[in-house]
Amino acid sequence: MDNVVASESKKRRCDEPELQEPPASRDGAGSGDDVNLELISRLPDEILGSIISLLPIKDAARTTLLSSRWRHLWRSAPLNLSVDLYLSVQERKFIPIVSKILATHLGPARRLSLDNICLRHHLYSKFDSWFRSPALDGLEEFEFYGTIMPPRPLPPSALRFAPTLRFASIGGCDFPEINAAPALLLPRLKHLKLWNVTISEAAIHHLLAGCTMLESLQLEELHGFSSVRIVSPTLRSIGVSVSYRISETDLVFEELIIEDAPCLERLVPFGAEGGPRRIRVIAAPKLMVFGYLSSGISRIVLGSIIVKEMVPISLIASMRKVKILVLQSIGPNLDSIVGLLRCFPCMEKLYIQSCPYKDIENVRQYDTLDPMECLELHLKVIVLNTYQGKRPDVNFAKFFVLNAKVLKVMKFGVCVSFNKKWMANERRRLQLDRKASRDARFHFERDSGLCELYYNKHIHDMWMADPFDSSLCKCCRPV
């Protein structure tokens, strides 16, 4: 049913959704569902309101038909309003629905989601009036993504939510300019995502300066500036990706500078381009997860470590806190990887997306007179994707088989057809009977593709110790 609150009937009050009554039980006695409903109805209004707020807006409105006990709960429950195809596929229908919801809802505002909405002229003014509605006072979560080209500005009235927002995801629009005075303050915002947004360098720095409690930041396919500096005492995770240049004069995100981030644990450049072309980390003493790093990043500076096109060229000190490294390797190139191992001597997990290149031999020998701390004491898990079983692949993997002394698991993401006979032959070629770690186990699996490393969806899920470990989340596991 397309109309949730605007449909009216003679048998119902004009401000209630028109929905069918639940069927009565055949014997006239209360069914099991009726008993369950009675038990649920005994819960306090606050709990029932929280439950209702988790439902899609149509289902939440339908609860008014359950019984007299539920009739007024939805109007006082926290508002969770998602304007999407589930609400209505027709623009002429969802506009009056949303307008009436905002005019009649009495409860606090929790979430407003406007996703994939065409910002045509008549809708632009309508959105502005929606954002000014008293029903959205105290809004905590805001999602907005426009789809019209060229992008239109985000209605400035959306910035009035700044004092109460905890989560904001904004994309497909031009971000309004922010004057330095008065400053835009977002004192409760913990999660910010800017996606396919045009924003000036001054505006993005003023925006970030006002986020005094920010914990996660995602900057994805942005235009309008070339460099951004991060200074935050609270940030724990950063995800960044770059956009293709639209024209020769188009400014795109090319440089990320982590100037001072004492709580930062994850820095994840993602996407096929692997993030900005230049990354500089001046102060991030708790950084533990780093990558996806690719050849698209021309220069990485980590304190006194300088890495140019995936090859370390200066190593005065090392990053001992980094435990998880995710990178691309052309070839795969063993010389490049070994150099990076010295940059991160305490690394425990290594993810490698191999880009096959036939001219690399990978015949490097491990110098026991110059041991690497990582191989001797720490490296426990290696995931090698795009494994084809060619000689460079075998020589590359064999280096770790023969030298990683505390290795627990090595997984091969195989991108060619394979069977038991093929795996038995690979085990022989890899010399698994000569493995350096007695406890090491080796698994050949179908390559999961680039998505998990390129477009990681768990960058900001801090409950996952390793956001790249697909075994920790059902949504990443193969069905």
Amino-to-carboxy terminus distance? 33 Å
Low-confidence stretches: 1-30
User: Total strand count, please?
Assistant: 20
Average pLDDT works out at: 83
Region (Disordered): 1-32
Protein name: F-box domain-containing protein
Domain F-box: 37-89
Question: Would you mind describing this structure in some detail?
Answer:
The structure is a single chain. The strands form two sheets. Strands 1-2-3-4-5-6-8-10-12-16-17-18-19-20 form a 14-stranded parallel β-sheet. A six-stranded mixed β-sheet has the order 7-9-11-13-14-15. It contains twelve helices and 20 strands. The model is unreliable at 1-30 (pLDDT under 50). Helix content is 22%, strand content 25%. It has helices spanning 32-41, 45-53, 57-62, 73-76, 91-104, 121-131, 201-209, 334-343, 373-378, 391-403, 420-429, 451-454, and strands at 79-83, 109-117, 141-146, 167-174, 191-198, 216-220, 227-231, 237-241, 255-260, 266-269, 278-281, 289-293, 299-302, 305-308, 311-315, 324-331, 349-356, 381-387, 409-414, 441-446. The chain has 479 residues and is of the alpha/beta class. Strand 18 (381-387), helix 10 and strand 19 (409-414) form a beta-alpha-beta unit. Among the domains are: 1-18 and 32-80, no CATH class; 329-447, no CATH class.
